[in-house]
Fold:
Amino acid sequence: MSRKAATVALTALAPISWGSTYFVTTEFLPPDRPLFTGLMRALPAGLLLLSLTRKLPRGAWWWKSAVLGALNIGAFFPLLFLAAYRLPGGVAAVVGSAGPLFVVGLAALLLGDRPTVRGLLTAIAAAFGVSLVVLKAGAAFDTVGVVAGLLSSLSMSAGTVLTKRWGRPEGVGALALTGWQLTSGGLVLLPVALLVEGAPPALSGVNLAGYAYLAFGNTAISYFLWFRGIERLSASSVTLLGPLSPITAAVIGWAALGQALGPVQLLGMVIAFGATLAGQLQPRARAAAAGSFSSAEKKGQEVSMDLESAAVRR
Structure:
């Protein structure tokens, strides 16, 4: 297995894990506590990673971490939950599948990645496949819910592209950067959850087990793999792994909850999965160019580091 294929496979574990969120939430957690659930996912995971890495942001990374944490966690979770409450699950998933299209536009604006016909068609095919998997006949639309869903998708897409643009500071690993974002995002959620939902509910052992899974497996590990993938892959490649989440949710619903999967849903899975695979393929010419640029960039970085070292010695 090539290095890129291994990176794609590890990154794909993040949306696959997120596909289990609905099952865990409905079967293990107290009802009607979406913001508290978001808080319990983000803040404990962030504090754990901070304690393991023992690194805090410095300089501009204080505000960069706050921005990324707000986009990827603090704003994303409340908007996502608002959409989920105002819309049927299938409609919310379809609205959320607009993420690859947002990333194409934002990557062109912020990263200078010129959108291609292939990239646009792949993003559209992914959204269409997801719609076949989750959208049911007679699904109702709610304006507030649709707007919230689109804004949640835009928030996560902006966080993905900015994470790619800013990278991470020298000497700081992806684990520490993940901890910064989860902690800052959790701190954004804390007052919102208390104001909207009040004091935390009484928790049973089953609830605690569900929250432990969401915080550590579904969030700490998954977001680490996601941000690591953003660093090593293109923004569009990473976001086109997103359809794996509703596909996983549909499979879990069929296997664990007895939800039916008909021919239309299976066709949608094939289309969405095909779009996901297509999003990981890179034309040879572009890959060769990227390789040469990467080599030149690496040499430039080495020269820059030598100059910085000389400046420090002075």
Notes: Residues 284-314 have pLDDT under 50 and may be disordered. Residues 284-313 form the longest helix (30 residues).
